[in-house]
Amino acid sequence: MIAEYEEHNYLIKDSDIAKWTNRYLSWLDDKEKAQLKALHDEGASFDELRETLEEFYAAAEGRRLVRANRLLREGCTALAEHLLGKEKTAKYIAIVKVLASFEETFHNQRDDLLSSIDLGFKRDVALNFLDSCDAVFHASSRSDRQNGLEHDEF
């Protein structure tokens, strides 16, 4: 299915591209399918193919988005089962669902906090910079946990 041929670059067999396109990427229009195939034929990396697919997904709306969600979930499940097996895939999917629920709760609570700031300069600053601060707090917290540090130890 997928084989690593260089560090973090993956080779996808031509037969797999056709199979995956016909089965899990059938929500793409003909132009997008042709663009993805051309990238593959030109030797695009797995990351380049994934980024292009993510762009197509981000542009999807309405029924097309619903279909894309369903088919991509099926494709991701098939890939995970190929890599992890059915039992570990079930556990992986459960973990991802918990994370998604947590992220939704986090964003809702953060949005509530932001809405408490009066319109104006302060709110504009908050809207422009807090996403970056979220990333910093997340990364530093993860680093602290990996290194066994607490915030008060600095």
UniProtKB/TrEMBL annotation:
Residue stretches making up the Polyprotein allergen nematode domain: 17-137
Gene3D superfamilies, per database record: Nematode polyprotein allergen ABA-1 (1.10.533.30)
Domain of life: Eukaryota
Family matches, as InterPro entries: ABA-1_nematode, DVA-1_sf
Designated name of the protein: Polyprotein allergen nematode domain-containing protein
Source species: Plectus sambesii
